[in-house]
Amino acid sequence: MKFRIAKMLLRLLAAPQSQATSSAPPSSPDDRATLERTLHELNDCMDLVHRKFPSNGMDVVYFAYLVGNDDLYRDIIQPFSNATVQEAAARLACLPYTEVQNSNVCIDGILEGMAAIFLKGKAYLIRIDEAEGRSIAQSETETVISGPHDGFVENLEQNLSVLRRRIKSSHLKTIELPVGEISKTNVVLAYLEGIANPDFVEALKERIKSVEIDSVMDANMFVQLIDENPNSVFPQFLTTERPDAVASKILGGRIAGFVDGSPSVFCSPTSFFDFFSSPDDYYQRWLLGTSLRILRLVGFLITICFTAFYVSITTFHYEMIPHTMLLNLTESRSRVPFPPLIEALLMETTIELLREAGARLPTKIGQTIGIVGGIVIGQAAVQAGFTSNILIIAVATSAIASFVIPSYIMSASLRLIRFGLIILAGVLGNLGLLMGIGFVIIHLAGITNLGTSYLTPLAPFNAGDVLDTFVRGPFWALRKRPSIVKSSNRTRNKMRR
Amino acid sequence: MKAAACWLLMLVCLAGCTDQRVLEKMGFIRTISFDVAGQDNANMLKVTISIPKSSQNESIVYTTVAHSSKQARAVFDRQNDRRLVNGQIRQILFGEALAKQGIWKHLDATMRDPSVGIHAHVVVAEGDTEKMLSRKYPQGGTAGEYIDNLLRAESATRDIPHANLHTFIRDYYDDGIEPVATILKETPSSLLIDGVALFKKDKYVARVPAADKMYFGLLRDSVDTGELNMDDIRMGKESLPVSLSYIHSRRKIRFSSVKGLTAGTPLKVTIHLRIRGSLLEFYGGEALDNAANQKKLEAGMSRYVEEKCNALIALMQQNKTDSIGIGQHVRNAMKYASWRQLEWDDTFSKADITVRADVKIKDIGKLTRS
Amino acid sequence: MAKANEKLNRIHIALLIYMIELDVTVFALPRLVAKNIGTNGWVGLLALTCVACFNIWLFQIVYRMGKGQSFFQIVEAVVPKWCAYPFYLVLTVFWIAIGSFIGKDFILIFQTLTFQSSSSMMIFSLYCLMVYVLLVKDIYSILKAVTLFFLMTASVNLLAPFFFQDWKLIRFTTSLFQGTEGGHTLHGWTEVYTVFVGYELCLFLFPYVDKKSKLFQGMYTGQLLIGLVQQLAVWVSFGFFSFPELKVLAYPVIHTLEYIEFPFINRVENLVFPFFLFSNLVSTVLFAFAGLSCLKQMFPQARPKLLELFIVIAIFGLGYIPKLLREAEALVFHSFFVEIGVAFVLPLLLMVLLQIGKLRKKGVKA
User: Fold this and answer.
1) Tell me: the pLDDT tens digits for A222-278?
2) pTM, whole model, 2 decimals?
3) What pairs with residue B345 in β-bridges?
4) What's the number of domains chain B is made of?
5) Which chain A positions have a beta carbon within 8 Å of C271's beta carbon?
């Protein structure tokens, strides 16, 4: 409800602005691009450079820190500094100089790192921007052991160049859509024409166009603006920093979205189980890849249920404990002053604190946290009779298991769900635990991404996809693109072996 | 919607408290035993329970004399500082005297409680049950653990019927077979598995001595592991002890036509036992590396097994209890109505049952002669 | 969205039928079979499965004759609204009551195992919450959830091999249909037939399917699937317990589960029994869905989610009626008896209505 009201308000506030920026109306004398106008719009910007060429009366305006010196010399200083008016006009008439009529376009160009050239009342733009940012390096959040080690960076052009190098196809289309009323962040959709479903491309385009917000900082933030279930705990777009993953998603018929300034790239349509696969699976032999997938599913179950199951058993179902374990468990529980539910919640919170502290601190101090947390708290808590050591095992195992899930965002969501399940298990035992799982399943069943089911390939069931979801089938068996993308060209592998 | 969910959860939180069975606040009954209270109060029941302490080596033992097990339970509840629960009962012991009177009343009460697992062993104890549970044993651990391990180890090495709640009650209800239970005997230093108790419905009527247990096992069902110790096998002229290990047996029951049974025609039953095993103990003088000698030995062993089995069957017939389930086979050969008419116990006791054993030596171990 | 062209798929319909039919009655199924059909009752169960398939065939005829018209279209083509609405209302109340009784019965059986002293209505309220959350979703989402629930519930069947060690064919006995309590009565066989109740709800799936979704292929598959699983349950129980014992065990299926022991976990029934929550939930939700369809027909302008809320409140309220397990079971059986009647009468009735409609059309033409 609140969201809806906020959205409406935003829409009302943003309405006049959006009209001005969204499309360039035919130039009327009022908004013609002129030097005075441009300088007026951009006054008080200390990084703005206004350069005059006395030999031909040309004015050049650009932002000093956005342009590259080499380009500036090659495209402006060298050709124009000694040119006559006629020569300059002739040069400007050809590419890469483009004439602009509209003042807003001109200013936007300057803001994007172009130089504006004014000559005899006409305005031209030339792209001489230089990307500043870190160079391509391995992604720190998604590492693989074998396979390509490059990762996306914050710069959109660089990211697109990485992608183009991987898919050298004329069918790889990129659509640019500006998002953010103030920040004017570029969002680029990349897909393969003829393989990606055009309906999905249109739907996603519409969805992105309907975003009305002042700025977008990151792809993970952006996808929350365009997903269909904003109140769900689950991420609905797969985001990754790995170019090989994105390339394979695009080749599989999905649409990738690049957000300028973000190293994460989102892919759509996504299903729940996509979050459990890593590019690594394909670089290993298929049996290994399969066992990794199964391991991750086991990890998923452990993350969600293990602590809750401990709580349920120790609180309600003592019969289920084998007699050999019973006394050990009783012994270790006997000094704990809290009921299992409180005990488990305490320990889970502690682990989350540790994890959060580790994430916020620089790596070097992070290690200290590991030692303090692991040894001091773990050991001391048991010795002080604060928790039972079996619980420590349960909590630690489920924390470790949560990290085998390749997507950090998904693993964070699952950790949150775990708390709910622990509480339900502490209230109604195994029935509560399964009721909790039932609620999660019902919730998952309601989620859609671009109208496709989040639970593909289980529901709707598709046997071929199962072969590439819960197991990683050998390549000769993976002939088809996933059914979720509803591609018109489903064959991806024609080898018969 | 969310507020409603929270509200619900709060309510349920409050409701769930009474049913919590938090581990350390429970007293788990490991073993429960029933016995008659003695001569002076014949109708009374002596109930003993053993609750292991979390220190693992000790247990709390309570005994009381009461009219019923529930009454006894109330007495225990008043004594114990932790809530007593039945979910971890591993053994149910019945005193010999009580077992002879019939145990169904107590079994029914235990079985009806859904928290009691059906894996609990049913044991007939020869000796004072209270003393058996409260004693310390050199094997370590509590009495309950000791009994549990003992019975499990026994059934792992010898595939003979050991009764748990499920098998006992299943056979109690079945009209073609009678239940059995393990007999546990107290010795000065430890406990001893001392044979098999044969029940007729819920009454303990006869016992198979420990030495004959394996033969009883062969008769009751196919056996996948175990060993046969035979005292005097005739091999040619000499008579010698032989033991056959890792035996594997198959039982087949053949009988004459069942047509006249209801009219009183005696039944003729042949039980074929096909036994294979490794010979690991042999003191005979003759070499075993030739087939003829091995066959001689096999013939001797077969005869010995037949004799032993015939004796056991005679014991069962005498007590009119079909503990080996011949009735199941006869039932399946008859029309349902005529089976219902048949007094199976009588038919069984009068039946002419012969055992045909076919013992074969699979291998003879490392030596060819002693 | 792309949802509009999504149609139900026959696999999901099969799983749905499986999950609707799998409800509280299955726990007692081996006892019901032993008590009412007797020795080797699985043969009788097989025959009853065929009867259920015949019933599904009746619905198939309705579907063919009506060319895929929904239940309401068929009825309202002939019967005036004032006449049809009370009929709908009765059906709605009845189906909501069935859903409620199934849920309450499940909770009460659960309470024999654990939570003996908690208020059953508290647990039932959580159950109702689940029903509500699932019911407000569209039928596609319900089916998606059902598919996952099926996977969880069906995995219980994987435990069957664990019984093999103590399972003997000889306990089946060789006689057929003997040893019943009180001979063979229609009442007895109907009591067994209650395990199949639920397939008739396919009537309300008509608007959501087209030729491609092969509704009836899915229905038959589902019926065979559930038949197979019921056979499995009966087979395991008949070989695992002795026949007279089977007649006295209240819930043989739960009882068998007690037998399984893993090294790390004992008494598996405590964990496995709650898995049946899902199948009962689906049964309740689908009965509620049938009721909802009727209500929507009567009040097309109702606010979204209002009718669902009303139904769930009704389910909760009706849950107050059975307080004892005995009452709950009796109610489930009685309402299932009526439901069996409905399942057979309804398609016949619809066929008559369709025929009348056809004749009338002809009359108009002439």
Assistant:
1) 999 998 899 999 999 999 999 999 999 999 999 999 999 999 999 989 999 999 998
2) 0.90
3) none
4) 2
5) 317, 320, 430
